[in-house]
User: What shape does this take?
Amino acid sequence: MIAVSACLCGVNCKYNGGNNFNEAIYELFKEGKAVLICPEQLGGLETPRSPSEIIKSEEGAVRVVNKKGIDVTKEYKKGAKSALEIAKEKGCHIAILKAKSPSCGLGKIYDGTFTGKIVEGNGVTAQLFLENGIKVLNEADEKILEIIKKETAAK
Assistant: This one.
């Protein structure tokens, strides 16, 4: 089983009320090989909601703040923890998460200035998954189709 950002399967849970539909990932879900998660909603945030970005202090502390200046770190951490519980319960060893998201981004995220600038880093959920042995990919990963094929063939 693969944990998948719900927005990638057409669920309108993106911050603006939309989704990031990906046909190949949706097929995996339709075949019963993926479980959908939306860490923001699991953390209690509404949809639509103000966009959020990660701000790192010089000491390395991470906060998630929305465009209105409200600290939503608590909700992001709660959602990440709930997403991890679901992934573990379903036996997920792989997660396909939304690129650049403050929850799901892997390797590259927005810098916290709301100017579109990208910096190195992981979203809150992606980081927690990695720390707990779940391989994380994003939908833009070149290996994604190969992994989907392997997962589909294994079942």
